[in-house]
Design brief:
Strand content: 5-15%
Number of domains: 2
Number of strands: 12
Largest sheet: 7 strands, mixed
Shape: elongated
Distance between the termini: 68 Å
CATH superfamily of the largest domain: Spore Coat Polysaccharide Biosynthesis Protein SpsA, Chain A
Strand order of the largest sheet: 3-2-1-4-8-6-9
CATH architecture of the largest domain: Alpha-Beta Complex
CATH topology of the largest domain: Spore Coat Polysaccharide Biosynthesis Protein SpsA, Chain A
Number of helices: 14
CATH class of the largest domain: Alpha Beta
Structural class: alpha/beta
Order of helices and strands: HEHEHEHEEHEEHHEHHHEEHHHHEE
Radius of gyration: 23 Å
Length: 402
Amino acid sequence: MLASLFDFTLHASWLAAWFWLLLLIALVWLRRHGQLNRAHLELILTADQADDGGAEMPTLSVLVAAKDEEANIGRCVESLLAQDYPGLQVVAANDRSQDRTGAILDELAARDPRLKVVHIRELPAGWAGKNHAMHQAVQHAAGQVLVFTDADCQFHEPRMLRAAVRFAQREKVDLLSVLPQLEAGTFWERVVQPPAGAIMVYWFPPQRVNDPASRVAYANGAFMLMSRESYERLGGHEEARGALNEDMHFAATAKRRGLRLRVIRGDGLYTVRMYVGMRQIWNGWTRIFYCCFGTLGRLMASVLFLSIFSLAPTVSLLLSPLAGAAGPAIALAAAVAVVAQQTVLWRFYALGGTPPAWALTYPLGAAVCLGITLNAMRRHGGATTKWRGTVYSGGGRVAAAR
């Protein structure tokens, strides 16, 4: 009798905890509306900020590294050369490409003298490929201001570079990173990219990144602008030689050395298609999560975050019939949590340029992100990382490349 009563009480307590946890999850999601409201108040880089009142612009070099990017490099470089920035130079590093990347760049350089192409044949020991390519490109850069970008970016607004330089001058910024609008061409891109981006925002909220008193540091390698002096104070790519996420290295170094770091949204001025297909998504975000989060503790916290706040509402709604007499109460609490979650996600997806209806696929995307995070945790066991055809040992920094 006592055993039955104990089992009943324990069962009831467990169901009650489940019920109240779901309501807590709903409240946490509803609080995120406040964060989205603040996001609308953050500074956004817009084309009209390019108005310089006739003031002289510093010379500028845009540097882009490309490895086997024949599908992207042409449109990227052409969009850069279409910028209306006076005295613009573009330096493109063809990093050991096995496809037509080098030939495409040479053809473009033959038509426009503002483009300088650097062909790289070997990767020295201890260097990540992109860092070595950028280091070589900088040796050919003549600009007073340097902009580092990626081959999968496309610049849609001809005034973007002028706007970015004027913003950095006006705000006295040493390292400016402008966030891109993500392109998504396949089902899995639309499903996974927004939840993955949400995890990054959770760990690196712009308000804290832009606060000089905060140690939180983040930059996006798709667009990093800095003066040559700031680049040298950061140690350049030589100091970041072994970092697989050189953007995070620069951001953290900027904070440590007292440089002013700012990360702002780009209002669709340029776009990037990070990955095409599930394999690239899986490998790419595994690398990002491992290198950006840095510690096993953060990865484990991300697993809990995804399991409880992202997946529990939907899973609970589906499993509520198994709760017996408490099923309707569990279903109601789960439905409240799902609705709260979706009201936030529809706004978040729209803010990032993704059609809001794709928020309905968030649980699926979160489940994939959970798998990616668990895969990133394997890196702490010494698993290798393969990126752009190069295999790196050690995960976050290069121990040996082959």
